[in-house]
């Protein structure tokens, strides 16, 4: 039996974690990613290094702080909303992932200011781009698993999850600021619809 989520302890933990994320993004914005140490982040957040490492394995992880929570929520959404069985319906699988993303993003998305910092850091650092792509691939693997659990054929599940990832990466590349991202994402998914458009239905 775990604590109800809003014990004083849980609130203090959330606050400490939020302070660390906020301090890290401020420092990254001021100095760039490479020039900021964990010690500097801890100092700005007014916590000890030990506290930092209780929440994050390294400073890269701070940038992708809500990755696990987002993936959990998306998988839960798929589990709840998937028409059974999905079978080999690729279009429905992709639509389901898009819906899961739309339902999850408002709850877990970085603030526009933090998104802008992350976008800049990704442009500046190939190490961070590698780490970012790894988080995307891990998420795609988890989403494919959720689709298979919902009855999708494995090839359809994997292709749908990687297609959703490709749409996200495309929208990121084309959006010149975080506010433009959702519009570009819609356009990208719209473009996908044209793939089968030349056949007579």
From TrEMBL:
Coiled coil: none annotated. It comes from the Bacteria. Signal peptide: none annotated. Residues 37-56 bind DNA. SUPFAM superfamilies: Homeodomain-like (SSF46689). PROSITE patterns: HTH_TETR_1, HTH_TETR_2. Residues 14-74 form the HTH tetR-type domain. The keyword DNA damage does not apply. Keywords: DNA-binding, Transcription, Transcription regulation. GO terms for molecular function: DNA-binding transcription factor activity; transcription cis-regulatory region binding. The keyword Nucleotidyltransferase does not apply. InterPro entries: DNA-bd_HTH_TetR-type_CS (IPR023772), Homeodomain-like_sf (IPR009057), HTH-type_TetR-like_transc_reg (IPR050109), HTH_TetR (IPR001647). PANTHER family: HTH-TYPE TRANSCRIPTIONAL REGULATOR RUTR, MYCOFACTOCIN BIOSYNTHESIS TRANSCRIPTIONAL REGULATOR MFTR-RELATED. This is TetR family transcriptional regulator. The lineage of its organism: Bacteria, Bacillati, Actinomycetota, Actinomycetes, Streptosporangiales.
């Amino acid at each position: 039996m775990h604590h109800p989520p809003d014990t004083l302890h849980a609130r203090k933990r959330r606050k400490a974690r939020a302070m660390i994320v906020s301090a890290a993004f401020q420092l990254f914005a001021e100095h760039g990613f490479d020039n900021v140490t964990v010690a500097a982040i801890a100092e700005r957040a007014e916590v000890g290094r030990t506290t930092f490492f209780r929440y994050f394995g390294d400073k890269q992880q701070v940038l992708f702080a809500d990755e696990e929570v987002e993936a959990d929520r998306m998988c839960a959404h798929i589990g709840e909303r998937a028409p059974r069985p999905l079978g080999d319906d690729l279009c429905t699988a992709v639509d389901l992932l898009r819906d899961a993303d739309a339902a999850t993003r408002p709850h877990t998305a970085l603030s526009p200011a933090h998104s802008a910092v992350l976008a800049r850091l990704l442009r500046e650092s190939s190490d961070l781009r590698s780490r970012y792509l790894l988080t995307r691939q891990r998420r795609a693997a988890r989403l494919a698993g959720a689709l298979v659990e919902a009855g999708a054929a494995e090839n359809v599940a994997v292709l749908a999850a990687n297609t959703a990832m490709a749409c996200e990466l495309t929208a990121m590349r084309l959006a010149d600021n975080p506010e433009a991202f959702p519009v570009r994402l819609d356009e990208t998914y719209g473009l996908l619809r044209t793939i089968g458009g030349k056949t007579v239905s």
